[in-house]
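Bumping my old thread because nobody answered last time. Still need a sequence for this structure:
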């Protein structure tokens, strides 16, 4: 059976990355590719690396163009997904890369976003553990609608959740500093992303709890801990096109030794094809996961400070967005989870 998939926002970074992955997917045929201001433009003029799609013309983003496909990927700016989703037929599988359906607490949504709260869809991070057993994968099998995580929450949540679920780290006083490549901000030019401002320099932003991924991270870690998790999150911008390196630290539960800490992460990820706990002593590196649907993680106990340090690396456009979207589609449709996904990186 051939699955037809449309991509709304195919002119953007996330949409084009979904197209790259679907070109290698053995069960999917790419249907409509849509844009906003770029409607009418040749795909090849915007994404020359996607040669098989070069002569496709981007169509307007409306329900009429998107209907008639088995799957619709939405890679639109925040706040635009709900209006489109409610116009699509009930039997269409919708995978939303925006934030619109990620949060379940309406107050969190209104504190960080300026559009009305639209609701909550199953969260497209299959490997994320929950307190008391189970993973988010359980909610994705057969789902009609999926909400793909933000790129930082993927790395941060996967780095910390095993220790919270196993009760080896405290849910209070978690500190996260993460660096992202500039593609995380999307394709449209932004003053802080102009070449001369970003080349050869790093800078923090959204400092002081203001970044909109803070409530998403806090929710994920609270679900893993089974208790309210308090998180200080500071994102930074790094002079590279792709990649996230998230450095997270949390207080170790008194009396827990290094072997017990490591065992928590080993048991959470032993059978996960897309999350690799690296051998002891080896640290994650964004270069090793570029273009892949992998997250590399390492964890250690700093006995002098009484803190566990867990570090994760991912490609923000692949496992951080488009790869998670395709992985979620596979689960939703009952396909093997990693079908069509790149499981090796591009290095150096
Ligand atoms: N970049 C990343 O690492 C990640 C992105 N995401 C999410 O994916 C979504 C897309 O992000 P990204 O690709 O980076 O952003 P881009 O800015 O690169 O692309 C945005 C896309 O949305 C289209 N668009 C813009 N305005 C409208 C509108 N008013 N109505 C309909 N379509 C519109 C654009 O079309 P046109 O080109 O014609 O303007 C383009 O196709 C966002 O919700 C983002 O948060 C999620 C995780 C990570
Ligand atoms: C470098 C950079 O600017 N990154 C983006 C995050 C991109 C992403 O994953 O987030 P959403 O899907 O929630 O937009 C930012 O900090 O806003």
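Sorry it took so long. Here it is:
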């Amino acid at each position: 059976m051939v699955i037809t998939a449309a991509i709304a926002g195919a002119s953007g970074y996330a949409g084009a990355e979904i197209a790259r992955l679907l070109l290698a997917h053995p069960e999917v045929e790419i249907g409509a590719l849509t844009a906003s201001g770029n409607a009418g433009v040749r795909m090849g003029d915007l994404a020359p690396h996607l040669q098989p799609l070069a002569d496709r013309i981007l169509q307007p983003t409306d329900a009429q163009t998107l209907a008639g496909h088995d799957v619709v990927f939405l890679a639109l700016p925040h706040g635009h997904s709900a209006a489109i989703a409610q116009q699509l037929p009930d039997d269409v599988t919708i995978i939303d890369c925006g934030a619109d359906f990620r949060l379940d607490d309406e107050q969190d949504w209104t504190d960080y976003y300026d559009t009305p709260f639209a609701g909550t869809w199953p969260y497209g991070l299959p490997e994320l553990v929950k307190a008391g057993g189970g993973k988010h994968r359980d909610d994705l099998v057969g789902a009609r609608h999926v909400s793909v995580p933000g790129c930082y929450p993927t790395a941060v949540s996967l780095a910390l959740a095993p220790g919270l679920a196993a009760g080896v780290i405290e849910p209070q006083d978690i500190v996260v500093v993460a660096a992202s490549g500039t593609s995380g901000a999307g394709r449209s030019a932004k003053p802080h992303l102009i070449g001369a401002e970003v080349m050869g320099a790093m800078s923090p932003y959204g400092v002081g709890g203001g970044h909109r991924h803070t409530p998403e991270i806090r929710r994920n870690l609270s679900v893993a801990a089974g208790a309210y998790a308090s998180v200080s999150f500071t994102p930074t911008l790094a002079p590279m096109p792709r990649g996230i390196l998230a450095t997270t630290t949390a207080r170790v539960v008194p009396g827990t030794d290094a072997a017990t800490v490591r065992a928590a992460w080993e048991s959470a990820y032993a059978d996960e094809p897309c999350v690799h706990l690296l051998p002891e002593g080896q640290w994650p590196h964004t270069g090793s996961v570029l273009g892949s649907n992998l997250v590399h993680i390492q964890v250690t106990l700093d006995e002098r400070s009484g803190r566990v340090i867990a570090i994760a690396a991912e490609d923000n456009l692949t496992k951080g967005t488009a790869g998670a979207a395709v992985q979620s589609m596979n689960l939703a449709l009952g396909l093997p989870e990693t079908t069509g996904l790149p499981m090796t990186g591009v290095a150096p």
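The chain is about 30% helix and 20% strand. Let me know if any region looks off to you.
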